[in-house]
Predict the structure.
Amino acid sequence: MSEHEVEREHEVEAVRSRLLLEYLEAIEAACPSCGYNLHRIKGAICPECAQRLTLRVELAQPKMGAFVFGLIGWSVGTGFHGILGLWGLWLNATNRGGPSLTEMWPVFVGLVIELPALLLWLRMSGWLRRQPAPARWGLGVGAWIVTAALSVLFFAVIR
Ligand SMILES: [Zn+2]
């Protein structure tokens, strides 16, 4: 960081601290960590739990519902196929019988689809939040449909 950037950072921090104290002078707010009432505190540190406080811009309605819904769908699918895949590898490595790795192809197909979808979902969270509600929820439901279909495929093929 250049000397100018450091100076600028200090200025921003000073403005933040000043506005935080002004805000808490006028409005009652609880410490996000311990719940202590921060009304009229004198410094940007919680007097009860000694955590540093800062002022932030936050979304009034974060629109996280569809993202979390889809995230759970991909996570369930990745976990289901991941655990079954490890179980299959272990059975075959220790010669305990059960399906061979070739018979377990739906598990590996499931994992190859679910894991990249989960990672892509995490990467695209910002883009997803900018989409209209029907598109966001459509994609969230899609995650569960794909996960359900791949799980049904497993039970239909494995015997
Ligand atoms: Zn506190």
Summary: Residues 1-57 form one domain. Helices lie at 3-26, 65-93, 105-123, 125-130, 133-157.
